[in-house]
């Protein structure tokens, strides 16, 4: 049996069609290709890492971490000031 060569475009279109349909086997039959071949293409596509947007590099993460630490320190300082003010005003209240 001779091994058929399919173009990359045909493979991508076949996989996309198979993923949209209910049955990969039926899609293969409709396209006139062996179902095992289409299953292989689908599995290869699923095993490939998905292209995602560029993840932030280490330097960006360090900058963000530094910024967040500064913000946290500022908020903690504000919290302490408010605690002191609350204690001060609680002492002045006439009983």
TrEMBL record:
GO biological process assignments: DNA transposition
Pfam families cross-referenced by the UniProt entry: HTH_Tnp_1
Species assigned in the record: Piscirickettsia salmonis
PANTHER family membership: PROTEIN DISTAL ANTENNA
InterPro entries: Homeodomain-like_sf, RD_transcriptional_regulator, Transposase_8
Family, per entry: Belongs to the transposase 8 family.
Any one GO molecular function term: transposase activity
Residue ranges that the Swiss-Prot or TrEMBL entry lists as coiled coil: none
UniProt name for this protein: Transposase
């Amino acid at each position: 049996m001779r091994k058929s060569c399919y173009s990359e475009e045909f493979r991508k279109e076949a996989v996309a069609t198979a993923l949209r349909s209910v049955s990969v086997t039926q899609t293969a039959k409709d396209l006139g290709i062996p179902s095992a071949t289409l299953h292989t293409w689908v599995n290869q596509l699923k095993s490939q890492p998905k292209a995602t947007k560029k993840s932030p590099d280490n330097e960006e993460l360090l900058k963000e971490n530094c910024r967040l630490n500064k913000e946290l320190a500022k908020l903690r300082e504000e919290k302490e000031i408010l605690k002191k003010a609350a204690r001060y005003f609680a002492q002045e209240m006439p009983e």
